[in-house]
Amino acid sequence: MANNDKKAKKVVVIYAPPVMISHLVPLVELGELVAAHGLEVTIVLGGLTDDAAAATSSSIAEGAATAHPAGLSFHRLPYVTRPRDVPAHDYVLQTFALARASNSDLREFLRAASPSQVSALVLDFFCGCAVDVGAELGIPTYFFFTSSISGLAEMLYHPVIHEQTTALRLRGHGGDDHVHAPGNPPIPLRDLPAAYADCLSLFLGVAEQMCKSHGLIVNSFRSLEPRATDAIVNGLCTPPGCRTPPLHCIGPLLKLGEAGTNRHECLAWLDAQPEASVVFLCFGTMGRFNMEQTRQVARGLERSGQRFMWVLRRPPDQDDGKLNADPDLDALLPDGFLARTKDKGLVVKSWAPQREVLAHAAVGGFVTHCGWSSVLEAIMGGVPMLAWPMYAEQRMNKVFLVEGMQLAVVMEGYDKEMVGDEEVATKVRWLMESDGGRELRERARAARRRAKEALSDCGESRTSLLELVEQWKR
Question: Which residues form the signal peptide (predicted)?
Fold first, then answer.
């Protein structure tokens, strides 16, 4: 009887891009959430080229779901050949191409699973080419956008922006020119992702593919980005002649680690610090500075006189072929820095439990690369931000955070060769001591209240998710 019940249960398939942690983690969290509401969920990992890529993707995905809820499973598609016509250094182009190479295997997997039992196919935007697979098999297909509603508004509108903008200007040579997308503050051309120029046709294709879908799911919440939400819902962001799919804002999708299990030693250090007194610096899994920039940050922190916790990764000019090795702090930091700051600072090698750190009462500020998951973690912690964007869509996120949501101020010089120690010291001190910093902190705490309301039993995000789940169950 139990087996018959299981066979009758509807399945949601989530198709994830290969080896991209910033996308895999929220996709897995979406899968856990949907499975917890009584649907079978299969997360499909495609675009894998060898055992190493498969092992990395599997460890990231399964590590994100430390305790699999009943009904959540993972499936790896067969290996594909890395396209020879795609430059090996172009990570974005490679990801699009590898996902496309797995389309036929995805089709066969869905056929074997019985399309009539698959109630939804959920795609990351890197896997957007699979929207045609869903249409061919008659499976309702959705996009899960792992970044902001504002970023989604810009992406949907990008075909219109492209018509108004030359390729040269898209590469950031437009001086002080700005892009104007409905619902968003003006975006400087230099803050558009470099990949827009290098992979323009692919991103234009994503906008078209999204318009073909049954719905757009976003890891954000309406009350955080009301103008962008209204612009999308009212059809202002899709190009003329294109339909606007239903928008489902279900975020933030965040899960803290289990209390009391393998607690990181940095949390014990935070326990001993006064409330809202520590500036936390962390720049994501790919955010690394060269040796000179690292020293400028160190001098700036010391000059600021503020308490700090700094997650420091090995700089690219110190790699020696060991990308994941811990940094040599003695060789990397200014002479005597650790000794002089030992009463006020903590340098953590390579990794810290960022969500738990940002949720800690001692943390009063966050210097961030503006990755969207990091932004949501800061919002859930009620922590104001200093924006230091580095790659991908982070520069656009900086614009949305500073000019739109007003939850951050920018670290000037992020777009130059070096952010100087004086800028680091000045901004950190401003954030922690000034009236402006206190106002920013109050806005961050108000955003945290809105986020918790959105996730509450009758909140906007929870309601949107439950409506989607019931739709899939039917």
Answer: none
At residue 47, φ and ψ (nearest 5 deg) are 70, 20
For residue 122, the cross-strand partners are 14, 142
Does residue 84 or residue 8 have the better pLDDT?
Answer: 84
Read off the amino acid at residue 234.
Answer: N
- Provide CB contacts within 8 A for 359, sequence distance 6+: 256, 377, 380, 381
Burial of residue 164 (CB within 10 Å: 0-12, 13-18, 19+) is exposed
pLDDT bin (cut points 50, 70, 90) of residue 9 is confident
Beta bridge partners of 55: none
* Residue 65: band (very low, low, confident or very high) from pLDDT cuts 50, 70, 90: low
Contact call for residues 219 and 376 (beta carbons, < 8 A):
yes
Q: What angle do CA 341, 303, 388 make, to 5 degrees?
A: 100
For residue 365, list its beta bridge partners. Answer: 279
What's the start-to-end Cα distance of the chain, in Å? 21
List the one residue out of 199, 197, 192 whose CA is nearest residue 167.
197
Beta strands 187-188 and 118-123, pairing class:
unpaired
Cα-based angle 316, 318, 323 (whole degrees, multiple of 5): 60
For residue 68, the model assigns a pLDDT of 66
Asked if residue 225 has pLDDT above 50, the reply is yes
Are 217 and 146 contacting, i.e. CB atoms less than 8 angstroms apart? no
**Which string of DSSP letters, residue by residue, matches 160-186?**
HHHHHS-HHIIIIISTT-EE--TTS--
The pair of three-digit structure tokens given for residue 285, joined into one six-digit string: 């899994």
- Residue 171 pLDDT > 60, yes or no? no
CB 453 within 8 A of CB 237: no
Decide: 463 and 456 in contact? Cβ < 8 Å: no
Residue 323 — pLDDT band, cuts 50, 70, 90?
A: low
Cis-peptide, bond into residue 252, ω within 30° of zero: yes
User: Quick one: pLDDT at residue 5?
Assistant: 46
Cβ-contact 16, 8 below 8 angstroms: no
- Residue 371 main-chain phi, psi, to 5 deg: -60, 140
**What would the pLDDT profile of 378-394 be if each residue is shown by its tens digit?**
999 999 999 999 998 99
Q: Strand 118-123 relative to strand 11-16: parallel, antiparallel, unpaired?
A: parallel
Gap between the Cα atoms of 106 and 9, Å rounded: 21
